């Protein structure tokens, strides 16, 4: 860990963290763009894969 303490994690937990961490940063960027007066970009996968009926 960052403080030097030894620890271990399950691989499934590491994978979940990696996917969720990217989501966290997309949210940070969207907030900054909005605060600067810009228009937030669509970044969610579901928007690009959804089909109209």
Task: Characterise this structure.
- Helix content is 57%, strand content 0%.
- The radius of gyration is 17 Å and the shape is flat.
- It has one domain.
- The model has no long low-confidence stretch (mean pLDDT 90).
- It contains two helices and no strands.
Give me a quick take on this structure.
This protein is mainly alpha-helical and 53 residues long.
Q: Which key terms come to mind for this protein?
A:
mainly alpha
Main beta sheet strand tally, sense and closure: none
The oligomeric state of the chains shown is single chain
Helix and strand sequence: HH
Query: How many domains is the backbone divided into?
Result: 1
- Helical stretch tally: 2
What gyration radius follows from the Cα positions, in whole Å? Answer: 17 Å
User: What fraction of the residues are assigned to beta strands by DSSP?
Assistant: under 5%
Q: Distance N terminus to C terminus?
A: 48 Å
How much helical structure, as a percent, in the residues? Answer: 55-70%
Which spans of ≥5 residues are poorly predicted at pLDDT below 50? none
Mean pLDDT: 90
Task: Give the beta-strand count.
Answer: 0
Tertiary shape: flat
Q: Which structural class matches the secondary elements?
A: mainly alpha
Sequence-ordered SSE layout with sheet pairings:
Blueprint: H1 11-35, H2 45-49
